[in-house]
Write a structure and sequence with these properties.
single chain, about 300 residues, mainly alpha, about 75% helix
Length: about 300
């Protein structure tokens, strides 16, 4: 509970500081960084805690985004938090089903299966006219934020901040629970874990559903953030590369790793996007990833732990 209260206080302080500065761009940039904290932490629940590398991030993220587009067309005045919840449930169920079919595979075979999932989902969305198909679909963003007033982007940032608190609290709770110890046993030696009576398939399904659900919730506000969603933006390579690179750079053994990685890489990318070009964002993540794999294979958090 003190950890959650601390996160809420930090989030409230960030939001209050942004309102005090009253600079729209600050909310745009901070939204992206917080979104990557959520995505990186969600990926880390499966990839870091259990050791199963998921390359299908864009499938889960885009399922959340396209769920919002569908709901926007069917029920235009539905509150965005409800859309996020629906997007999370859809992505979580897809994660559960995909996990049930693929989690008997291990190593690179599982990773290839998740990559295939992203290709299948993208093909389906590209050919689904109701959500705009290859043309994409426009979403009109309300001019005034509900409940808090002011610019709508502030409302989006607040929702992403709230989701970030939930995701970080969940990740930390997993680390200090029997579930987390089961995940660690799978990551260290799955055969030995099975022999010791650990229900490996059940635990992996929980990890896949949680990870996919949180990614879907992170993607749900995207159509309102960019006001337009097409396959190129929903399935952007940036999300896949950053969601993997940030936990690896920060460290995959702790909830803190994705936070450190997202702030470092996301902050640097936002700075370069404004001063140079957004075209080098993936390059920045790639170069940093190679550097940290060589210099600090356990990430920044692991580096500090080793020096203690």
């Amino acid at each position: 509970m003190p950890f959650v209260l601390a996160l809420v206080c930090i989030g409230a302080a960030l939001f209050a500081g942004g309102r005090w500065l009253n600079v729209s761009y600050a909310f745009f940039a901070a939204y992206v960084v917080v979104q990557y904290i959520v995505l990186g932490t969600a990926w880390n629940i499966l990839g870091g805690y259990t050791g199963y590398v998921n390359f299908g991030i864009t499938a889960f993220f885009a399922l959340g985004a396209y769920s919002s587009v569908v709901l926007y067309k069917l029920v235009p005045h539905l509150p965005l938090p409800v859309m996020m919840l629906v997007g999370g449930i859809v992505a979580g169920l897809v994660g559960l089903g995909t996990g049930y079919l693929t989690l008997r595979l291990r190593g690179v075979f599982f990773s290839i299966a998740t990559l295939a999932l992203a290709v299948v989902v993208q093909t389906l969305m590209t050919n689904w006219d109701f959500v705009g198909g290859a043309r994409g679909a426009y979403v009109l963003r309300p001019r005034v934020a509900p409940l808090i007033g002011g610019d709508y982007i502030q409302y989006l940032f607040l929702l992403m901040l709230a989701l970030c608190v939930v995701v970080l609290a969940t990740a930390r709770a997993i680390e200090h629970s029997a579930l987390g110890y089961g995940f660690a046993a799978i990551r260290d030696d799955e055969t030995a874990a099975e022999a010791s009576g650990v229900p490996t398939l059940r635990l992996k399904l929980i990890a896949t559903a949680l990870s996919g659900g949180f990614m879907g919730m992170a993607g749900a506000p995207l159509p309102f953030y960019v006001t337009y969603l097409d396959p190129a933006s929903g399935f952007s390579l940036n999300y896949a590369v950053n969601a993997i690179a940030m936990p690896l750079i920060g460290g995959t053994s702790s909830w803190m790793g994705p936070v450190v990685g997202a702030i470092l890489v996301g902050g640097l990318q936002e700075y370069i996007r404004v001063t140079i070009s957004s075209a080098v964002n993936v390059l920045v993540a790639g170069v940093l990833l190679v550097m940290f794999v060589i210099i600090a294979p356990e990430g920044i958090v692991g580096l500090f732990r080793r020096r203690r």
